[in-house]
Design a protein that fits this description.
Length: 131
């Protein structure tokens, strides 16, 4: 049921019609993206962190943004170099939109933030920020 909700939110929030990978639910509303593997190896964990199902929508990880960013038809905020640098330092930036959005600078997807009142709130993890 929750995977179906994530697929519905991908379409509603980002205009993503189809994905070429599978999703599995982890704990705490987290979802992981993976592809089937025919190798017979011991599995400890499968997939990369894709995003978290929040009360008010789907908050994608940086990897989740890369996986669906090219096919996203809405909910994408394009930023310039200065804004991208500020974002990567962990700052909130100016931007239009409503709800969770994908930040894009050129061909790079910088992550997902929450747009509200002309600003995009930064959710970039501290360990991924630059000084």
């Amino acid at each position: 049921m929750s995977v179906a909700r994530v697929l519905r939110l991908l379409k509603e929030q980002f205009g993503v019609e189809d994905i070429d990978f599978k999703l599995r639910e982890g704990g705490g509303g987290r979802f992981y993206a993976y592809r089937e593997c025919m190798l017979e190896v011991e599995e400890f964990a499968s997939g990369v962190y894709f995003g978290t199902l929040e009360r008010d929508g789907l908050r994608l990880s940086v990897e989740g943004c890369y996986l669906v960013g090219k096919s996203a038809r809405k909910g994408v905020v394009k930023v310039g170099r200065e804004q991208a640098e500020r974002w990567m330092r962990g700052e909130n930036i100016e931007g239009e939109g409503d709800g969770y959005v994908i930040l894009r600078w050129g061909s790079y997807f910088l992550g997902c933030g929450k747009a509200r009142e002309g600003k995009v709130l930064n959710y970039l993890p501290k360990e991924r920020r630059v000084p």
